[in-house]
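SAMPLE LOG
Freezer: B-3
Tube label: C17
Construct: single chain, 555 aa
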Amino acid sequence: MKLKVGRKEVEVKENVVDRVVNFFSPVKGQKRLRARMMSAISGAYTGGSKRRRSLSEWKPGGGSADADLLPDLPTLAERSRDLIRNNPLAAGAINTKVTNVIGTGLKLTPSLDRDVLNLTEKQADAWEANTEREWRLFTETKECDLARGLNWDGLTGLAYRQAKENGEALAIMRRIKRGFTPYTLRIQLVEADRLANADTQPDTKCLAGGIRKDENGAPIEYHILKQHPGSKFGYSREWTKVPAYGAKTGLANVLHLYKPLRPGQSRGIPDLAPVIEPLKQLGRYTEAELMAAVVAGMFTVFIKTDSGEGELNPFEPTTESGGKSSDDDYNLGNGAIVGLAQGENIETADPKRPNTAFDPFTMAILRQIGTALELPFEILIKHFTKSYSAARAALLEAWKYFKSERKWITDYFCNPVYEIWMYEAVAIGRIAAPGFLTDPVIRRAYLGAEWIGPGKGMIDEKKEIEAAEKKVEMGVSTLKEVTAELVGGDWEKKHPQSVKEHNKRKKDGLTPSTSSGQAAAAVSVDPELSEKEKEKEEEAGDDEDPSTGSGQQED
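STRUCTURE (predicted):
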């Protein structure tokens, strides 16, 4: 039966059930058929149509987050790692992310909530300076790594790289006393392949992907294989069950770094998952084009003689001396000469390489890959061919992504480790923090921290600095913000050195540059000043407070 609504005509055919209903009750059969026809025309989204020819075969599954992910996760992780090992584009994309998000490391700058703690500027500055020294004592050597292979910067970079390659990374907090460091905290990075249900139990509502959860979906236990399942020493069937949180302290024992894309998702998805096939196919295409170009670059001379001997002068400079058509190896060579027997002939294969369409086609695919990886095309291939404005726009767009990634790694790795370390530092008396162990509000006030990483870089330094200067003058930005953005440094650490240099240049009769880059003639030393006045001025300069730069003497 056909039904026409406006310009849309829908045909609904009777099925077996319709015929059975019509046989016993024609009235009900007609009502059923009309209901089916109304259902066929009621859809408002063409993308949801199951009758359109272009969409009829598209039947994606409707499983939960874990049901869709967990069966494919091992294969996704293995293919992602293989691409990063062997595909230049995949390796470049991950390296670009690690370099810009982590770079030389994320440096801690303690930032107390001074109002909550009721501390003066001087007290807060002293506490922050001492805490930073203690943190460096813990992180600048390899003692913070359980395996003694990396310092803090190396651990942060590896954890982030694992989260991008495998989609997730595990950091287990261990306690071991060793070396000269007073701290027992040790960080163990574990590859996510070792996270699996103990005794190969099947996934259940409360146990999936090696993670046991409570009724609210919060992790309570992690099942870690004692050995990587792909180890060359064989597959180990021994597991360690690590509680998610400490029973006494409530601090995390395991930091599971991954980005859930759906509620209820237990494991992470590799960054390259959406582009695994395009990257692999593009790699194959590149290899084929490269081989075709190599073959096209080969030039072999064939000599046909009446005798069929095909003999060559052994003194002739050829790649293959004395080659004949009867040889077992059929290889082209660079300037090779091969003899042909009587009656034999050759036909030249023209591969027409290099292929002029190769570069435009590759660039088109790379743009799609870059979109999925949130890397602008210019950043992905490290090639800037357009205008300054276009290059800067690409850099700014990439910087948005790098900043969000940096915030993610600091929120879910750096800050939790800092809290766990601080708990021990306060407990053993290395850092004085009254109320830290008892009051959660005071604890958060002490745990304020900023993590400084590499700056975004500048294409035209003059323009970038002038723009930053205008922001500061307008009050829409601060020196601290523009310093972190442009060069990745800490303004509060640079300021005392600037004051020192200012006073030194002033003392030696030089004219220092002001923050705006203009000459500060007013601060130059007057050669007519008496030695006594010079000494007074020098003493006043030495009394300036370098932590605030106010130029005022302490009370």
